[in-house]
Amino acid sequence: IGPKPLAGQRVLITAGGTVERIDPVRYITNDSSGKMGFAIAEAARDRGAEVTLVCGRTEATPPHGVNVIRTDSALRMRDEVMSRLDGTDVVIKAAAVADYRPASRADQKIKKTSDLLTLELVRNPDILQEVGEWKEARGGGPFVVGFAAETTDVEKHALDKLARKKCDLIVANNVAEAGAGFGAETNIVSVYGRGGFAEHLPQMTKRAVAERLLDIVRDARKGSSER
Ligand code: C5P
């Protein structure tokens, strides 16, 4: 292996939380910091990949030397991801995409007129699942890695997402654990893949998780091309 093992490879990474607008000054978002996705982007860049980073709302500054695409809502993020799939070798979806968005966005700031205000939400598309379906319809496409932030039954939910969203790997973290998940500098993850593959990583910096994950992706891609 040379010093730039991912040279010539296109890697698309999503990071951060989506922002779902309620009115011009208010929105729904989540605690995702973007740090895990940024660490993967840096690691892939340092291995020589051509990296596109599709970002939602993030606390951290995106790394240099990668193509940064800023998005806000899940719908916009979907468009940015889907329009770039052709020619992409690896997709890593570390973004926390909102499951629901306001059914309509008010043009003006909502005034406080009544004591009870009901906000109607509609389901967002599942981008990871659409990527899996895109691949299935075409009979091929990028190697796809999903993330799963769970607070209970981590393995069960991760394996369910691996199958349902048709991913090649799922990286699961228990966001309720200390030293893992949103905002933290470290993470504690388990990686699940096809054919019963499972690897449980100890607490590590997000960069170290990123490096190990790229090694697992490399080995899994090699395995599938040799099959
Ligand atoms: O939210 P959930 O736990 O199902 O997220 C698992 C994976 O699916 C993550 O990689 C996330 O980025 C992706 N996802 C998505 N679109 C959604 C919800 C989740 O791409 N609407």
From TrEMBL:
Ranges for region Phosphopantothenate--cysteine ligase: 11-227
Acetylation among keywords: no
Keywords: Decarboxylase, Flavoprotein, FMN, Ligase, Lyase, Magnesium, Metal-binding, Multifunctional enzyme
EC number from the UniProt entry: 4.1.1.36, 6.3.2.5
GO MF, one example: phosphopantothenoylcysteine decarboxylase activity
Domain DNA/pantothenate metabolism flavoprotein C-terminal span(s) in chain numbering: 6-218
Cofactor entry: Mg(2+); FMN
Residues holding CTP: D99, K109, P125, D126, I127, L128, F147, K161, K165
Pathway(s) the chain acts in: Cofactor biosynthesis; coenzyme A biosynthesis; CoA from (R)-pantothenate: step 2/5; Cofactor biosynthesis; coenzyme A biosynthesis; CoA from (R)-pantothenate: step 3/5
Cofactor binding note: Binds 1 FMN per subunit.
Record field: catalytic activity: (R)-4'-phosphopantothenate + L-cysteine + CTP = N-[(R)-4-phosphopantothenoyl]-L-cysteine + CMP + diphosphate + H(+); N-[(R)-4-phosphopantothenoyl]-L-cysteine + H(+) = (R)-4'-phosphopantetheine + CO2
Family: In the N-terminal section; belongs to the HFCD (homo-oligomeric flavin containing Cys decarboxylase) superfamily. In the C-terminal section; belongs to the PPC synthetase family.
Function: Catalyzes two sequential steps in the biosynthesis of coenzyme A. In the first step cysteine is conjugated to 4'-phosphopantothenate to form 4-phosphopantothenoylcysteine. In the second step the latter compound is decarboxylated to form 4'-phosphopantotheine. Catalyzes two steps in the biosynthesis of coenzyme A. In the first step cysteine is conjugated to 4'-phosphopantothenate to form 4-phosphopantothenoylcysteine, in the latter compound is decarboxylated to form 4'-phosphopantotheine.
Name recorded for this polypeptide: Coenzyme A biosynthesis bifunctional protein CoaBC
Gene name per UniProt: coaBC
